[in-house]
């Protein structure tokens, strides 16, 4: 008797659509509209650069990213705004005053889960 049970996800998207440059620009503009947005700082690592034989080395510090301190907030925020606004343009202002309210669920209490909860509060939604 097998202890493995196959379960098919009947709710998955029929096909994968890769992220485009246009998607990336829309996400950047969405976050630039947030009143608390600031680019992540770059931390220069001259010692590591010398050791590796590089002219320069920098680390993008996502540890101070908004509230939860995680880059996970970026993708979660765009996905949540898209769910609230549909296929139209993404903007922080529109997401802050969406045409409908939603309750957001996530299957983790890790960085992604904390990001979803944090953003839901900021956008006046439930999580």
Automatic annotation (TrEMBL):
InterPro entries: TrpB-like_PALP, TrpB-like_PALP_sf. It comes from the Bacteria. Residues 36-124 form the Tryptophan synthase beta chain-like PALP domain. Its cofactor is pyridoxal 5'-phosphate. Coiled coil: none annotated. PANTHER family: DIAMINOPROPIONATE AMMONIA-LYASE, PTHR42937. This is Pyridoxal-phosphate dependent enzyme. It comes from Candidatus Scatomorpha merdipullorum.
């Amino acid at each position: 008797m097998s202890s493995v049970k196959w379960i098919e996800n009947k709710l998955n998207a029929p096909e994968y659509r890769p992220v485009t440059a246009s998607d990336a620009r829309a996400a950047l503009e969405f976050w630039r509209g947030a009143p608390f947005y600031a680019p992540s700082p770059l931390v220069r690592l001259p010692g590591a650069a010398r050791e590796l034989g590089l002219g320069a080395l920098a680390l993008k510090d996502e540890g101070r990213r908004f509230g939860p301190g995680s880059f996970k907030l970026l993708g979660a925020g765009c996905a949540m705004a898209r769910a609230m606004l549909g296929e139209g343009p993404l903007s922080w202002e529109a997401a802050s005053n969406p045409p409908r309210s939603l309750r957001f669920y996530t299957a983790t209490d890790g960085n992604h889960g904390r990001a979803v909860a944090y953003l839901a509060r900021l956008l006046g939604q439930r999580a």
